[in-house]
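Task 17 of the worksheet. Students: predict the tertiary structure of the chain below and write it out as structure tokens. Keep your answer in the requested format; marks are given for formatting as well as content.
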Amino acid sequence: QVQLVESGGGLVQAGDSLRLSCAASGRGFSTYAMGWFRQAPGKEREFVAGISWNARSTSYADSVKGRFTISRDNAKNTVYLQMNSLKPEDTAVYYCAAEASVPSWRVLVKAAEFGSWGQGTQVTVSS
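Model answer:
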């Protein structure tokens, strides 16, 4: 099992960009499927983006498609979420998630499929 620590959140204005990072410690990161989720106040946690452990497959929520990009650097045990053209509705706590024992090509999109979670980082977008 890996331990996950998110960073890079903050307060920005609409239209700005942020890059979130999720650093993993523990063995086997390069064979973990990774994902980003977010949870706004009063709302359920929702899928944002996912990446397979071979980094060849990605998936995005419709609400962020074309604006957000997920990537990973297995040498650094880190997954990133580049967020461009941020909107006030992107305001939420963003969580990183990881799961092992997944085929190399598979992208996970459901929260219940992930076994490891970070503590989250707050992203606030002002209008």
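Marker's comment: The chain is about 0% helix and 50% strand. The radius of gyration is 13 Å.
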